[in-house]
Structures are given as C-alpha cells and as structure tokens.
Amino acid sequence: QVQLVESGGGLVQPGGSLRLSCKVSGFTFSRYAMRWFRQAPGKEREVVAGISADGFITNYEDFVKGRFTISRDNAKNMVYLQMNSLKPEDTAVYSCYARAYGMDYWGKGTLVTVSS
C-alpha cells in the first residue's frame, strides 16, 4: 500500500521558515521523481517544486525560487521542502506527490499558515 505522509506545517510569521517532510512507503522511492504541490484557500492546486529520482535535478516555480529548497534522502524514503522568507501568500495546504507504477499518489497535506 502506497502512503505519503506529510509533516512540519504550522503557523509562522512573515519572513520566517519552516521545513516540511514527506515520508513515503509502498514503492521503490529511489526510482521516482517527487513533487511538492500546494493549494491555497479558494484556489486551485499548483506545483511548487520537483526533484529527480537521484536528487540531482530540481526545479521550482518562479514564485518560490530563491526561497524554497526541495531535497530528498533515498535511504530514509523522505522528501523535504525547506521554506524560507515566507510570505502570507504562501499560506496553503502543502502536499507531496509521486507518479509511480503509472498511478498518481498524493499525501493528505500539511497546513502552512503565514501570518503575524
């Protein structure tokens, strides 16, 4: 059974930092690229960042470039999203995603609220 479980969300002030984690089980993690998505209240889900299976290639949407860093630890089946210089508009539910064995898998998400 494939599971993706996010953690690390919470309330943070503008300019602050959070590190999100996603624990993956049920497929050979090291063979698949991973992505982080987010969905803000009243908005559609959008991709935030992606990382290749080996971790050497990363990509980011323009609105997080220079502030967020995606990484992974294939020995631990974990993917991370380090978020710095957070803005109120970063408030959203953040979810990790994988496409494995021809199917899409999502975690339930973790809520990040950026507010003073």
Name the features.
116 residues, mainly beta, globular, four-stranded antiparallel β-sheet, seven-stranded mixed β-sheet, 0% helix
SSE layout:
Elements: E1 3-7, E2 10-12, E3 18-25, E4 34-39, E5 46-51, E6 58-60, E7 68-73, E8 78-83, E9 92-100, E10 103-106, E11 110-114
Parallel strand pairs: 2-11
Antiparallel strand pairs: 1-3, 3-8, 4-5, 4-9, 5-6, 7-8, 9-10, 9-11
Account of the protein in words:
The protein has 116 residues and is mainly β. Helices cover 0% and strands 53% of the residues. The protein contains no helices and eleven strands. The protein has strands at residues 3-7, 10-12, 18-25, 34-39, 46-51, 58-60, 68-73, 78-83, 92-100, 103-106, 110-114.
